[in-house]
Structures are given as C-alpha cells and as structure tokens.
Design a protein that fits this description.
The protein is 40% helix and 25% strand. The protein is of the alpha/beta class. It has one domain: 3-Layer(aba) Sandwich (Rossmann fold). β9 and β10 form a beta hairpin.
C-alpha cells in the first residue's frame, strides 16, 4: 500500500533550483533509498517532506492526505518523523530524559513537553522501552554528552520513535560511524522495517545502504534521474555518471 506520494516537488533558493519537479512514491513497510551525490537535493527534499522548508511547487500526500507545507509539529502528530545528519540531543540530560522530552512533544507539544509531568513512572517506562528497542538500555542514565556518535545516532532514532510514526526519514544514520557501529545501526534499520515502519533513507555508505533498501530513488542536481530496484538502479548509466563521471560510464560498456 502506498503511504507517501511526492508529485512535482520543486524548491528554489535565490534562483538556484534545489529540487526540480521531483516525483516518487514510498510503499508501506518498505525501505526507500533516497540517494545521490553531494548537492543532489536529498536534504532539501527531506526538509520539504518534514515541514522544515516549504516547497515552491508540487504536492506531498501522506496516508491519503495532502500535507504540503505543514509544520513539523503537525506532521509529527500525523505520523511522520525524521532524524538529522548532525545529531543535537540535550547533552546535559540523560538518554532516557532525552526520549522523555520527545514523548512529551508527542502527547503535549511545544513548551509543555519540557515543563509537564514528564518524569512520571509510566513515561520513564516507555522511554526505557524505546531505548531497549535501539540497543541503548545500558546507557539510559548516562548524559547524552558522554555517548559515542553511534549511540547518539541510535538515540536520535529512539527520539523519533517516541513520536509513534508510521514513516520515518533517516538522514545519514551511518555517517561517521565505525564499521561495528554501522553494522549495529544497519540491523536497527532493518528491524524498523520488520516492525512495520516505512523508512526513507538518505545515506552515502552505499554498500550497506543498497543491501537494506527495497527500492531506490536517485537525485542529481535536484532532478530525479533513476528509480527502481537497487540492482537495476546500480547499473543505470545515469547513476554511474552522476557518482563517477562520464569515463566510468564508458568503462562500464
């Protein structure tokens, strides 16, 4: 079943077209890879999907409802969550407290999430369940500022899961991680799909990313250049050229 439809999404910045009439779909319970070289428009696309930027044209339809231009808070309540390439937790709060704040945003929103009854036993229990889900049970009472980058990336996922999403946008969850951390995070992403979540993945660690995704969308200079199963997209001459240049295309024939 189709959970997301993007139609003609366009975004310009001071005359520069960052997204040029991009269209694609995401199916429920699958992992969709949103790939492309640096500057392709992937993060801008995520910003438009998650309400951090308003597209200049096009439509975004989530679960049968148009959500184009809605705020991040409204989208989160509708079931769409995202993580960020650069993680920014509350460094002086523990891992559990960071998740509790996210739970507060889900149920109360805004400032109330920070000042409400967010230390209740039921809320903490739910936070611990989410930390267990991402493999951070042992770090629950450690301050976020003391966690490794790999742990922080998983904490970011736990905070997103606190919003009870149906669709989660993961922005470079493997970036900057050790091989061991990448393997653990890849297992976590696969688990999200197994639990019925839909994932859209932006990632530059292509070997691991291609092994995770069900379908791929590739952008280059703001335009969609390929889409389909990973095996077919990997061999597409336009994709090879976007990543490696024209010479690589010639060598592949």
């Amino acid at each position: 079943m189709r959970i997301l439809e993007v139609v003609g999404l366009t975004k310009r910045f001071a005359g520069l077209t960052a997204l040029d009439a991009v269209s694609f779909t995401a199916e429920e319970g699958q992992i969709l890879g949103l790939f492309g070289p640096n500057g392709a428009g992937k993060t801008t696309c995520f910003h438009c999907l998650s309400g951090f930027a308003r597209p200049d044209a096009g439509r975004v339809i989530f679960d049968g409802r148009e959500i184009t231009g809605q705020t991040p808070d409204r989208l989160a309540r509708a079931g769409l969550a995202r993580t960020f390439q650069i993680v920014k937790p509350f460094r002086d709060l523990t891992a559990a407290e960071n998740v509790i704040v996210a739970l507060g945003h889900r149920h109360y929103g805004g400032f109330t999430a920070l000042v409400g009854s967010w230390r209740g036993s039921g809320t903490r229990r739910r936070a611990l369940e989410l930390l267990e889900r991402v493999g951070l049970t042992a770090e629950a009472d450690r301050k976020a500022g003391l966690l490794t980058l790999g742990m922080l990336k998983r904490l970011e996922v736990a905070r997103a899961l606190a919003l009870e999403p149906r669709l989660i946008l993961l922005d470079e969850p493997l970036g900057g991680l050790s091989h061991e951390e990448m393997s653990a995070t890849a297992d976590l992403i696969a688990d999200l799909r197994a639990q019925g979540l839909t994932v859209i993945l932006v990632e530059h660690q292509m070997r691991i990313a291609m092994s995770l995704v069900d379908r791929v969308v590739v952008l280059d200079h703001g335009a969609l250049i390929a889409s389909g199963p990973p095996e077919r997209v990997r061999a597409d001459p336009r994709v090879i050229e976007a990543y490696l240049g024209e010479d690589a295309v010639a060598r592949s024939h």
